[in-house]
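Blinded run. Sample ID left blank on purpose so nobody reads anything into the name before looking at the predicted structure. Input follows.
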Amino acid sequence: LSYNTFMNNYYLNQVANEGFLDSAQLIESVVSHAKTLNYLPQSHSSARAKLSVEIVPDDVPPTITIPQHTKWTASVNNVSYTFSTNNDIVISANGSGNYVNNYVDIFEGSVVTEFFNVDVSNTNQKYVLSANTIDTSSLSVKVRVSNTVSTNATWTQQKTILGLDGSSNAYFVQPNGQHKYELQFGDGTVGRALKTGNVIEATYRKSNGDLPNGAQVFNFTGGIDTYSNVIFTTVSSAEGG
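Blinded prediction complete.
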């Protein structure tokens, strides 16, 4: 009886500890409490560098576009890292007829795209992003009607349900409890509900945190918008990772 009472006391004490945020020790418990506070744990953050880019075309186009995810590489401590643009950058000719942008931001990290097939009959289905070093600020989510339809609709990340209705293309990000993040969608009343057969496309960067900080010599191969003559200089070295 003494042994059994001791074990029950220990068990109930541990359970009680996990029931409160300030005494919880298991990450799953802390994450669960954080959800009730609408708190999203901070993710990795990609190092960012700034370049001045000039493109010298053979003709005179109205604009030249640097596509999203155009890649540069740089080495820090003999380790190579990939940097890329976060979105499309459109460059128009300046007064001298040159196509120059002195403020091109590039972000460190490998760009990853994951797909999830929706089955609403599976009540336990979760959409957990596989990388645990994701930079959540880079997350982009699109939803396709089915595998046979190529067009996507971009959905917007929300942090509150205020202003949402059953037609809102909204999604939410929450911690999964295993140092990963999970996507959640509406139920048809608050946010548009997914349907069986829908395909979720999630694109994001896997960041190496502070390791690429200080990168300042970048390499670029290939062309931009069919133009191969690309000249660039580093305006500011990588920081903020």
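Unblinding after everyone has recorded impressions. Helices lie at 2-18, 27-36.
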